[in-house]
Amino acid sequence: MAETRWIPETLFDELGFRMTYAVEKVLYEQQTEHQHLVLFEHKHFGKVLMLDGATQVTTRDEFIYHEMMTHVPIMAHGAAREVLIIGGGDCGIAEEVLKHASVERLTQVEIDESVIEFSKEHFPEFTGPVFADKRFESVIADGMKYVAETDRRFDVIIVDSTDPQGPGAVLFTREFYAACKRCMAEGGVMVTQNGVPFLQPGELISSVGHFRKLFADAGCYVASIPTYVGGHMAMGWAAADRRLRDTPVETIAERYRAAGSFATRYWTPQVHKAAFALPRFIAEAVEKATG
Ligand code: SAM
């Protein structure tokens, strides 16, 4: 009987903490130009993609993060036509964005082409509808370079990045956020993957601090994603106007109806609103962030 291979998440090794997966079958493993990529089958979480020892997406719980990173900013904005995704190579967020008929163009800027190519093979449920949609534009580039140089303007910017290590580190800098502000359209909003505050408090405090220096409204909202271990996941919020965050739940519900009440498994107008009610330890961390 072959011995079970266990693959650890090494993201929190410094904390002396590891989550480990019992692998049913390794489907793909490669050291790309930018990072180490492994995809395997797990009996409970389905397909699991890890980059540089950090869980990126699992087919079992992806809907939580993808819906909350997409529908919260788009429904809060209310008239988003031009949307930009930085990172997001698995296309899980792109698939959610394209559920919004109001979106006229979606541009995704991913640094590692092999993540997209391998996702076409292993995550067809995301990439299939996305690459079949003529509103979608895929750009292979460093997100920092793209936002620093583009002459386009975006209503919603979604930063679906890896953690602040390797190619993802630059996506947590003041320079990057300032360049995102530069290409944000009037009344726009940006949301960011910002880690798990209980285990990665510094990441959130640093980003919100930068947001405070650059945007009229800065903060975060939360959701719990089983394989982003450590409790609440924080999604950074940076907007040109405080009113977006304060959009009444009735208005969000009306916008959802107008958008055809497309299928969701986590996001609802009520969950949207509640996500900004932060537990005290996270609220205090955000308050402390001065940048
Ligand atoms: N949801 C996941 C998470 O929370 O950890 C992230 C998923 S997505 C796969 C992350 C993507 O960001 C990866 O495909 C990676 O290649 C991409 N990425 C990292 N640094 C980047 C950069 N500087 N510019 C553009 N894409 C980048």
- Following the backbone from N to C, one meets helices and strands in this order, namely EEEEEEHEHEHHEHEHEHEEHHH
Oligomeric form: single chain
Query: Helical segment tally?
Result: 10
Summarize the amount of helix as a percent range: 25-40%
Mean pLDDT metric:
96
Quote the beta fraction.
25-35%
Regions with pLDDT < 50 over 5+ consecutive residues?
Answer: none
Major sheet: arrangement of strands: 9-8-7-10-11-13-12
| Separation, N- and C-terminal Cα atoms | 55 Å
Q: Would you mind describing this structure in some detail?
A:
- Helix content is 33%, strand content 29%.
- By secondary structure, the chain is an alpha/beta fold.
- The strands form three sheets. It has a seven-stranded mixed sheet. The protein has a four-stranded antiparallel sheet with strand order 3-4-5-6, covered by helices on one side.
- Helix 6 links the parallel strand 10 (154-160) and strand 11 (184-193).
- Helix 5 crosses helix 6.
- The chain is globular and about 60 Å long.
- The relative contact order is 0.14.
- The model has no long low-confidence stretch (mean pLDDT 96).
- Residues 34, 51, 56-57, 65, 86-90, 109-112, 115, 142-144, 160-162, 167-168, 170-171, 193 line the site of S-adenosylmethionine.
